[in-house]
């Protein structure tokens, strides 16, 4: 900006003698005009230079966004796996789940969890996924004397998805039946197989 200088001119018409008047000289006004035009030219050059950097900064910010999303997703998966491991260990410590027989495990489920686990086991015991799905659609073992669609009535979609993933990943291990043998006396032997 132009510096404004105040001077005391000689008495002008209509002004008292002691009053000062602040004016900018004509030379200073000319210099100010030149400075403004130089600034305008510099601003135009700067905007021309800024545009490519804005494009670069947009690409960099998009890359940063992708990296944040990737690491956030990775952290969420890691936390989920740690939490699942914690819950599994907690359930095993609370109910001694790993040392129990299959039937005792089913009984130890609380609320409706045992029923859903039973349907999950039925899906795995079926010869194929299609056959297991059909058996659940036309279920006559749950309610005596009635044929129901257990998939819709009990919302068994999570069990269907889980059993499908279990079959696809070939996680099935040959299932062997669990047999308990009791000898009551020399002649009496009781064998219970699940």
From TrEMBL:
Record field: transmembrane: 65-84
Region (Disordered): 1-53
Membrane protein topology class: Multi-pass membrane protein
Family matches, as Pfam families: Dpy19
Amino acid composition bias (Basic and acidic residues), ranges on this chain: 1-11
Subcellular location: Membrane
Entry superkingdom: Eukaryota
Major place of residence: membrane
Keywords linked to the UniProt accession: Glycosyltransferase, Membrane, Transferase, Transmembrane, Transmembrane helix
Family, similarity comment: Belongs to the dpy-19 family.
Protein name (record): Uncharacterized protein
Provenance organism: Ataeniobius toweri
Lineage: Eukaryota, Metazoa, Chordata, Craniata, Vertebrata
């Amino acid at each position: 900006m132009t510096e404004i200088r105040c001077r005391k001119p000689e008495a002008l018409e209509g002004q008292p003698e002691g009053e000062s008047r602040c004016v900018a000289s004509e030379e200073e006004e000319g210099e100010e005009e030149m400075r403004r035009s130089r600034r305008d030219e510099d601003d135009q050059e700067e905007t021309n230079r800024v545009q490519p950097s804005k494009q670069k900064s947009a690409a960099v910010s998009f890359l940063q966004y992708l990296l944040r999303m990737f690491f956030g997703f990775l952290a969420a998966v890691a936390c989920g796996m740690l939490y699942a491991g914690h819950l599994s260990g907690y359930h095993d410590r609370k109910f001694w789940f790993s040392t129990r027989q299959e039937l005792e495990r089913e009984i130890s489920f609380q609320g409706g969890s045992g029923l859903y686990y039973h349907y999950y086991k039925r899906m795995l015991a079926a010869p194929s996924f299609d056959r297991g799905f059909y058996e659940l659609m036309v279920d006559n073992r749950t309610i005596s004397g009635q044929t129901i669609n257990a998939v819709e009535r009990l919302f068994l979609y999570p069990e269907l998805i889980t059993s499908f993933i279990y079959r696809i990943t070939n996680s099935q291990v040959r299932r062997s039946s669990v047999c308990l043998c009791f000898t009551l006396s020399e002649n009496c032997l009781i064998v219970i197989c699940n």
